[in-house]
Each structure stands twice: as C-alpha cells, then as structure tokens.
Amino acid sequence: MQHLLILLILQRTFTVVEATIPEMQKAMQQKHVTSRELVTRYLNRIALYEDKLHAAITVNPNALKEAEERDRERARGKVRGPLHGIPIALKDIIHTTNMPTTGGALAFDGFVPPYEATITKNLRDAGAVIVAKTNLTELANWVAGAPTPMPANYNAINGFGMNPYDPRRDPRVEIADGRPALATGGSSSGTGTAANFWAANVGTETSGSILSPASQNMLAGIKPTVGRISRYGVIPITADQDTAGPMARTVTDAAILFGALESASPDLNDPATRACTPPPGRNYTRFLNAKGLKGARIGIPRAFYYDPIVAPGSTEPRGGLNPDQLKVMAEAIDVLKQQGAIIVDPADIPSVIDKDPDRNIVLWGICSGSTNAKGDDANCSVVLKYGMKRDFNHWLSTLGPSAPVKTLTELRQWNRDHDKAGAIKFGQSNLDVSDEMDVEADRTRYEADRAKDIALAGTHGIDEVMKANRLDALLFAGNTAAALAARPGYPTVIVPFGMTPNNPMPPFPEAFNPNPAPLGVSFTGMACSEPRLIELGYAFEQATKRRIPPPSTP
Fold it and tell me: What's the whole-model pTM score?
C-alpha cells in the first residue's frame, strides 16, 4: 500500500515542463509516469496555450492510442530506444499518413499524402509518438519575397505563430498586420518546444529555418550536413540545400533525436544520404563530453559577422552585430577561453574579405522576389529559385491523383483564384520567379551559380579558413551565418545563451515595453563534422546552462 502511495505522489509531482528526454525515460522506466500520461500532460498544455501561440497546425487525434501501444510494448519488455514513448512534433512539410501535411498552403489544407517521409518512419520505428505538426512559414518561406516579403512563421492556414518569450502582437501602426512583437525566427516553429508542448520537434532548413527559431526560442538545434538525413517525403525548396534537423531544449535531447532521424543505411529515395557515415548505432550521445572545449580551436570570423565591412566597389558598410549582441558574444568567447578553448581571433572568411568582386560572397546574394526576376538576376544565385521549380514539381509528381495541384504553375493559378480567401496575403513573388525558370534551358546558369555558391561559401570560405587555422569550429551569433553554411550544405550546432533588447526600426510605441530577445551561440564546421560540433555545443551548454523557460507559459 505504501509503495502504491509513493507511486501516486511521484506521478502527481512529475512535470513535463523543462523535462529532458532522459528524465522522461527514467520516469517511465521507474513507473512514475506512462507515455500516455506524458502525452496527456502535453495535450493539456497545448489546450491551455495554443490559442496564444499558434504553435501547432494539427494535433494528432490518435496520439493517446499510439502512446498506449508504446506503454504496452514497454510492459512486455520491448523498449525501442531512448525515444520510446516520447512525444515529438514535426514541421508541417514532413509527410505523415495519419495527419495532413499542408506546408501551411491553403491549396493543401487537409491533404494527407499517400506515403510517409523516411524520417517519420524512422521516428516511429524508434518508438516516438508524433503528437503534432508545427506551424511554419508557408512552404518553408519560399512563397513571397520582395516587394512584400512574407513574415516569418506566417501561413494561410494558421496565420501567425507567436513567440512564447513575448507572445504579444506588434503594436506599431505602420506594421499592424498581426505579426508577433518578438519574431519567432524562421519557418520551423520552435515555439511549441520552447513552451513545453512536446519534448522536441523536427524542423527543416534551407537557409536558416532551424538555426533562426532555435536562437529566437532559446533552443538547442542541429542543422545537419545536407544528405546526413533523408529528405524523402519532405516538401522541398531545393535539394541542394534542404535538410531536416532536431530542435530541443537541451543538446542531449537534440543529439538523441538526431540519431533517430538518421537512417542506418543510405535511403534509396534520397541519393544524397551517402554524404556522411553514421557513428556506431547512430548514437550521438557518445559525443556529449563536458570537457570537449579543452584544447578546441575556435575561430572568430570578425569581418561582416561581428564587425561591419565595406565590400569591394561599395561605399556603405554591411553586416556586423549591434552593441548588445557584441556584448553577448564577448561573454561567450570568455566562457570558451575559461573552458580551455584556443581562440583564433580574427579568423575571417576569405571570400568575405576578398578584394575581387567576383570572389567576394558579400556581393553574391540569393535571387528572390520580383526584384530578382529574369533579366534582373545577374548578380545573385539562382539556385533556390531554380531548385524550387525542379524539386517542387518532382515532389508533386510523387503524390498521385489525390494531389490538389499537379505543377507549380497550377499552384500559382490556384492561389490567384483563391486570393480573396487569403491564399496569398503577401503575394507569391518567390513562386513567380521560380516558375519562370526553365529547368532545361536554364540548367547551365544554375550549374554555374551552384558552383560559385560552393566555391565562395565552402572552398574559398569555411573550408579555407578552417584548414588554414586548423579550426574545430567557427563561432557565430544566432543564425547570422546560416546562409553561408547553407550553400555548401555544412552543419551547425546552436546552443541557448543570451538575451538582447528587442529594439526594431521603426521603434515600438513608448508605452510598449518589449521583452528581450533570446540569442543563441552557433558552432559551424565542415561537412560531416556533427560529432565534434555536438561535443563543443554540449561542453558550452554545460559550462553556461543559460536556457530559461518562457515566462508566458509556466
């Protein structure tokens, strides 16, 4: 009787708020809580706070049943791994056959794809309970660029997602479209993970959509090497840069989820998955070394990423951090030194400081929006807009007769026909400039731009500075180097760390007192260096432990 009473007390006192995956596993192992109870508690939090945050597009109606099955397996002695019975959310561009996959696009509202994504299957095989699909910027933020770019974490189905660290709407009269006062940071919606709606979530990144929401929501995130994790069954922008990756409240949780996402062998449906060799058992927790910074060589890319520079042929300075961000990063560098890291400062990116305009990456942007339509795209990379036409149409072709549209052209027309229903509140200039690309006729231009992307960001960029200085990683503030690492498909691990004032321009009204904005610290490396980056990120996290839960969802 006394044993049962103790169990009841432990069940009542166990909370999912800020609980780690190992803590949840231990609680289930010791019968203090079940997977069904974990899911129930998360569903209760979603019910309490979802109206405020808009973190989920869909909640799995069968989540409790799936959790009960995991509990029955555990009772029979079958535990699939560290994710067994753990509630996880997926970005709503990742196929699930028991819930819609919409990309936030009105044309796909309610659409259930005919096959599961490889990573969805991997997670189910690992015992995870897919509890929800997360809010996102529509179609991973390749719908509307200039002149009216779509704000981050907006889509036509679910509207704006809000940041739990300040879930109020932007009060500025000149904005006044419902967007959050504190940006959620990109399309993968880390808001639900930050607010303890689920244990962790799977985002995707083409150029910043894991790192940005991780930074803005005080999360740990792993943006993998492109090809490390299968993209089969994930709505694409371009196969050249797209990757899924984990977002969690701790590096440990992110590492556990990362291992479950990676396939044991290359996925025949995604040839890029031969890029990296997984560690034994895909166990990334073996790299969680609290002393991993001792002797590590960390480079500080001052030019552009910390301090503004004037690019060749220009007169105006570009880039740089504001004083508050610089203060946070100076503190982070001090921590690294205290932990025994060797700081190489500066370790500038060679293509950033190159005096030759043709070899300077600062002058080589990404073509997007109506200002970079055909004829106005000579000085930017067409890789994303070309890749969207090529890869989105290929993805549509895999959906069979149930697909609501069959081509990108049809989607654009559908959006125009449903404009009054809110299909394209911010226009669709990115879809327009993608659709005007000719996959055959423009192939030579695309291949040249792709080669230049890799040369400037990889060979003459990250590779060159890291090899010259024998670096283990480059250190960046938040997602400031996301576009740099994204072009060659290189990995980054981000860790929660600081807070800076939220002072946008134009400023908020005097009466509005904004909460500070989180800022993560990022460790970037060359291809397939995730094990070392995880080690560095974990050691930094253990030395600082700066994550705090959001004040709006106790």
Answer: 0.96
